[in-house]
Amino acid sequence: TEDFKLIKVIRGHEGEVRNVRFSVDGSKIISVSSDYTVRVWNVASGKQIQVFQGNRGWMPFADFSPDNVIAVCLRNQTIELCDIQSGKILMKLEPHNHSIYNLNFSSDGKYIISSSFDRTIQLWDIESGKKIKQFEGGAIDISGVQFSSDGQKCLSFTHEAISIWDVQSGKRLRQLKAHSNNITCAKFSPNDEFIVSCSLDTTIRIWYIKSGRQFKKLEGHTNAVNEAKYFPDGQTIVSCSDDHTVRLWDVKTGEELQKLERHSGPHHVLLIKQFEYGSDNTLFLKKLDESSSDKKKQFIKFISVSS
Fold it and tell me: Quick one: signal sequence residues (predicted)?
């Protein structure tokens, strides 16, 4: 894996780092931790810009808008839109009857969708702060949601299936029974023509959105695949797994291009659960040292990937 190079390590969280996001311009990241905080970092300096404290007992979630406002879910059923520099709360949305699990800004920053353990998806207008639409997800908790890049569709996934929705009408366009075990992630391709999904069944699958047919099945991981997503050019998929590897895949051929591997020993176990990338193909990994009793050792790693 000589094509991977460690660029930077950011330390500061006192618990496991569960989620990370780059800002649209790539200059900042937000990280979410089991220390019940959401933190904003300057990528170039590695310095912390802001910290938002959540409630004990509830894992927060966060996402960047295109204009660098962040949406944070710190208190179960409430989404707060916050200014990064001041930390000031600009608006509160209280959309759900149960704990919020995931949220996503539209690419133009005008809307937010959120999913919840109340088994609904809520669509919000940011300017007015009003709920526009509610999508009924069914009888199973909705694990994740994402807007398509054109904002016309959104997807949601449960552990059993992926649903594609028309944003304007609220109609479910298609449902994919995608894997032989629980689904862990689903994402649109940059051109909105495909969906990539991954699962506890160790596979990554690419789906045609229009037909619902499977385009490719990517095999190579030997344990649960936690996340898979497209690079911005749409030609490469990156995945991470409980087999302690991050892998790059060629979308057209389905072949594995690169593998970043960390061997585990009796005193150290590395599980890569989630990642993000910047516009310069920087891959941003979350490191979880399960064996460490010192929570202050939790940190974030930047890896560069050759194009």
Answer: none
